[in-house]
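Hi, here's the filled form for the chain we discussed.

Project: internal
Contact: R.S.
Residues: 103
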Amino acid sequence: MVRRCSLTIFPAHQTISLASRPHSVQIQGCMTVTLAIQGTEYANFKLYVLPDFCAPLLLGLDFQCTLRSLTLKFGGPLPPLTICSLVNRKVDPPPLFANLTAD
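And the returned structure, exactly as it came back:
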């Protein structure tokens, strides 16, 4: 998508953790864009370029937190489930060898 749209990428050295905790990806670069989605403009959003990602665009929590709500339709038979106040959790991993003795 970046090549197809001839977007300018700036250097960025950061790792993003994916939904499955042990998986992470190194960012290849970043850009600031104005997004127009369903008639609404979202100005000056920073987007990160990820290698071989499974979707052309991933809207992160920084974008999602600007919205009053976000609706995802899956087409299942059960009634809607409303979830509020999703937050980004950063949990430090426990020390790897904290419970081992020197011998």
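Let me know if anything looks off before we file it.
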